[in-house]
Amino acid sequence: MSTSVREQFIARYGKEPAVCSFAPGRLEILGNHTDYNEGFVLSCAVSQHTCFAMSPADGTKCNICEHGKDQELDLNDIDTPVKGDWRNYIKGLLVDLKRRGIKFGAFDAVLDSQVPLSAGMSSSAALEMSFAFALKTIYGIELPLADWARVGQAVENKFLGLNSGLLDQFSSLFGKKDSFILCDFRTVEVLKNVGMPSGYVFVVANSMVKHNLVDSAYNQRRVSCENATAAIRKTHPEIKTLRDVSSELLEACKGDMDHIDYLRAKHVVGEDERVFRAVDCLGKDDIAGFGQLLYESHESSRVNFENSCPELDILVELSKSIPGCLGARLSGGGFGGISIHLVEIDKAESYAERLKTAYKSQTGIDAATFICSIGDGAGIKA
Ligand code: GLA
If we measure between CA atoms, which residue out of 71, 72, 91, 73 comes closest to residue 81? Predict the structure, then answer.
């Protein structure tokens, strides 16, 4: 991949790039919508990357070549997003660096991405973090890794208006090959790496329902979580976020809050608990138990958080009738995008095929299915 982005750079600019960077997409394994509630997530980085080749340039005009097409960007004109333009991710990142008083200059770049777009695999975080790694290398910008995740989050929150958490950028930075990372979004750190059980893989099935999280109910869901927290705080002022709330406490306070807010909180609190139950199962090699938690998570998305959609429900239902699958759920923000399926490795190829065929016959939609391998977080190519 990096050879190819490097070669594209040489073909476009007639010289070697100063740096080639890469950043992966991610899968959320368990811990849905827990990140902005300062909770826990089990996630991993995937082996599909977004890559940049980059060199510094004079003046304020930057060039980014993508698929052989030049896209310009002027450093004097980065403050306003343009609807539907992927350069917003670059602009937003530069705006946040400026806000932090960090100095940088112009650049010539080539961008190459293998991460499926708008699918729930965080193509935007991969773009942001790959760009960040290239820029920080050519301009010697020193920031702790977790702060780069915060810069990426600012792009989404402040520049684009999606009030997302840190999961996507964090997983793209901290992912570990063949492992899940157990993330704590209060302390913003990896608590531990948990090995992917041997003999199993995740099959990813893209429902092909495009989710646009800004237009969707994502922000509303976040408000519901905050409402539920505020209601609990009236009698339990020590509670800061839903991370501090157990299922028992939520049930005890159920009558103090709006019913919809209660359902949203029930999902988040349940997800935090499922993350730890999953770590437990994986520690005991209880893969069936782990798979069951994936099903429980999806069911809670469907009925409590209402961030599934009929197509994702069909993919998860189908998983129960095709041999080899131990559990499946939607992954990421929801409202469309991907589902993940925990499958015995020797059945994975036939499983992916059969799932695609069955989904097509029920919905008429051609799903993209593939076997996912778990890779390392972002870096610089030697
Ligand atoms: C999206 C957001 C993340 C996280 C997930 C749901 O991917 O960008 O911050 O909230 O949804 O867990």
Answer: 91
pLDDT tens, position by position, 267-303: 999 999 999 999 999 999 999 999 999 999 999 999 9
Active site residues: 168
pLDDT tens-digit map of 71-120 = 999 999 999 999 889 999 999 999 999 999 999 999 999 999 998 777 78
Tell me if 292 sits within 8 A of 327, measured CB to CB. yes
Containing 55, the helix (H) or strand (E) segment is: strand 40-57
CATH architecture of the domain covering 2-194: 2-Layer Sandwich (3.30)
Instruction: Evaluate: CB of 221 within 6 angstroms of ligand 1.
Output: no
Tell how far the Cα of 32 is from the centroid of ligand 1, in angstroms: 7
Please determine, for residue 2, whether its predicted confidence score (pLDDT) is greater than 90.
Answer: no
Whether 167 is in the pocket of ligand 1, judged by its Cβ within 6 Å, is yes
In angstroms, the CA 178 to CA 186 distance is: 25
The number of the ligand 1 atom at minimal distance from the alpha carbon of 166 is 9
Dihedral sign for Cα 209, 295, 222, 203, please. Answer: negative
Q: Is the CB of 123 under 6 A from ligand 1?
A: no
Give the three-class secondary structure for 44. Answer: strand
> For residue 299, is it left (φ>0), alpha (ψ between -120 and 50) or beta?
alpha
The structure tokens 């209601």 sit at 231
